[in-house]
Design brief:
By secondary structure, this protein is mainly alpha-helical. The protein has eleven helices and no strands. The chain is elongated and about 70 Å long. The termini are far apart.
Amino acid sequence: MSFWEYVGNRHAQLLTDTFQHASAVFQCMVLATVLGVLLGVATYRTEWAGNLATATTATILTVPSLALIGLLVPIVGLGVAPTVIALTLYGLLPVVRNAVVGLRGVDPSLIDAAKGIGMSRTARLLRVELPLAWPPILTGIRVSTQMLMGIAAIAAYASGPGLGNEIFRGIASLGSANALNQVLSGTLGIVVLALLFDAAYVVLGRLTISRGIRA
């Protein structure tokens, strides 16, 4: 059976796996973005705190994904839970680091001007600092998403959702007629999803970043 015949015969399952893969990555990136920005906001004003947040999330990223998921399984069980926890943790570093860098890079004169017109600290953060720090934060989100696309495939080891199931089934049945087709379909699906997500981020950047900031 050729690759395209295999895709035609298995299109329903492949579409389901693709949707689950995209959904898992998207939801985990939302969690990682919220947590990462909060960590950045909480630590960027103090040098040691920002460095500690960056170092801690960098340490998490050094743990092999298969090992982390394997450690989570006895605690939270198989399926979605270890997938969500692992992907969220792995997605933190680029977001935290870029949030800290972006917030520290805001022009102090703009902050002083906001103070001068009576803005509170919260208002300055929400209306001045975070909008100006958004471009590097968005870059961190894009980097995290590309990483998680590949890491999410490992979640199949713990019965997680996504295209990793196709890859693992193909590896487990090497030598059979459709083993290569299974691995190839899962891999190409992840590559296509990664490109689509990145294109969506480009559009999001054009919609949310003013021309003055981009310049």
